[in-house]
């Protein structure tokens, strides 16, 4: 149940969240403006799907979105507008939805 999922999610201090990887799926959780990788910008509508094309050294994620030409740069400050998942999809989406939770007596954070 939910308790078991929370226990798996909250591994205590120092537990590392899976790094974003090329090929991870992306879903816009809300409408937002995003800059093009090199120039321009676009409005990404809620529920627009995409995929991670590159992860920059500075933490920016380069994404291709359906129905849009080119690639777009998602900065750390824009990460709340999208959900990115690969192998750790359940963990990331649960933490994004619940925010900070108390797991088995240990304070569990979103891993930013």
Describe this structure in words.
The chain has 112 residues and is α+β, with helices and mostly antiparallel strands. Mean pLDDT is 75; it is low at 1-16, 88-92 and 100-112. The chain contains two helices and nine strands; from the N terminus they run H-E-E-E-E-E-E-E-H-E-E. The two termini are 26 Å apart. It has helices at residues 2-9, 89-98, and strands spanning 25-28, 32-36, 41-44, 49-55, 61-65, 72-74, 82-85, 101-103, 106-108. Strand 5 and strand 6 form a beta hairpin. A seven-stranded antiparallel beta sheet has the order 3-2-6-5-4-1-7. Strands 8-9 form a two-stranded antiparallel sheet. Helices cover 16% and strands 34% of the residues.
**Mean of all residue-level pLDDT scores:** 75
Secondary structure category: alpha+beta
Count, helices: 2
Instruction: Kindly provide the radius of gyration, computed on alpha-carbon positions and rounded to a whole number of angstroms.
Output: 15 Å
Contiguous runs where pLDDT drops below 50 for at least 5 residues: 1-16, 88-92, 100-112
Largest sheet descriptor: 7 strands, antiparallel
Number of strands: 9
Brief summary of the model shown:
Helix content is 16%, strand content 34%. The protein is of the alpha+beta class and 112 residues long. The radius of gyration is 15 Å and the shape is globular.
